[in-house]
Amino acid sequence: MTREMVTRAFGWKSMAVAGVLLVTIVAGAPAARQRPNDGPADGARAPMPNASDSRLLRSHDWLRTVRDDPGGPTVEVRLDDVLGGLGRGVVLDRPALGRVVQEVVGSDEAVDGLRVGELLDRVPRVRVSSQGLSMVIGRRTLTQIVQHVAGRGGVDDMTVGEVLDGVAGAQLTHDGMAGLLDQDATTSLLGAILPGAQRVDHSRDAQARRRQALQRLYGRVVDLVRQVRREGFADADRNAVYEEAHKRLLAERQLAAIPLLDGHLRLEEELAAAQVGTSSRAERIASRWEARRKAFGAQVVEMLFSRDEAMERYEVDRLALAADLSLSDEDRARKLGERRQALKVELAAQGSYVSFPDEARDAPDLAAAGEGRPR
């Protein structure tokens, strides 16, 4: 796959995700994966069908609201179920838009009078899955998309009906929604969404390559947020930090890092809340695991924090061994050695390693003292 093909693939992917997100907030439908190359010439083509007439959209198989998610209610979108299924596109008629929003809300109450802010309070996250990778999109990004489509700020106070009225009648194709979301707008809002889902080579260890690429992007986001806070935003709320960091990522053309920015700020919030009521180190580690999954979703956590969590699991097991009074010193040392070896094997499979500088010491003394954290 050439660089140009990869760029175009990212572009179509981003347009599709933008359309899906708009669907799951207030309207829209996912765009097709590629340009259709069949059918008569443009001038002779039949009118686009209404979204209400699309069997794919009526089925809602691609969309569900998960209400037992540890991070709170999440709208889950299976992008591959709809990509390529819309042909030349659809006209977003008002009844179809209302039905999609009703599917998201999951109740019989009227949705037209619901405030956008209330809707996002109820379902503040969208998990988009495609080609084996899923990405959680948070409220800040969702709000940006609605603001762009509505052409104004302060959309939390708008009603869902007002936004639907503004979108109804728009034609959604692989190029976006004319007059509402074009490629430039989508790129500015979402960056290169789901870049890891594009398989641009046939590496023997594609998962490791995807993991390393995502970790580099996340490292850039973490560094940038710290920099923004040092440069005048130390006391600002996270929404202001997001806006400034987002602006800088756009200016630097760090588009692939944009989807991780809101997740990082949500992780800060979750970690702050998770510390309440925890006392032991094992409890703090467990709360950290839960906070990461609330912020990013399980799959992205596995890619971003796989090494961290492997070492944290070792630490929890080490603490348990040290506290187990039923073990003799010899048994404790043996089990600790086995656990260390398991950690080394696990990290080696990720392309990483760990060493224990105190392994030459007397193992029973080490276990009893609770020393020997990996590095």
Bulk shape: elongated
H/E series, N to C?
Answer: HHEEEHHEEHHEEHHHHHHHHH
Main-sheet strand order equals: 1-2-4-5
Query: What does the radius of gyration come to?
Result: 24 Å
Helical percent range? 40-55%
Number of helices in the DSSP assignment:
15
**CA distance, first residue to last residue:** 39 Å
Q: Strand tally, please?
A: 7
Which residues form runs of ≥5 with pLDDT under 50? 1-16, 23-44, 196-204, 360-375
Derived structural class: alpha+beta
What is the overall pLDDT average?
Answer: 75
- How is the biggest beta sheet arranged? 4 strands, mixed
Strand content: 5-15%
Task: Walk me through what this model shows.
The protein is an alpha+beta fold and 375 residues long. It has a domain at 3-197. The chain has 15 helices and 7 strands. Strands 1-2-4-5 form a 4-stranded mixed beta sheet. A 3-stranded antiparallel beta sheet has the order 3-6-7, covered by helices on one side. Helix 8 (206-233) crosses helix 9, helix 8 (206-233) crosses helix 10 (258-274) and helix 11 packs across helix 12 (298-304). The protein starts with a helix and ends in a 6-residue tail after the last helix.
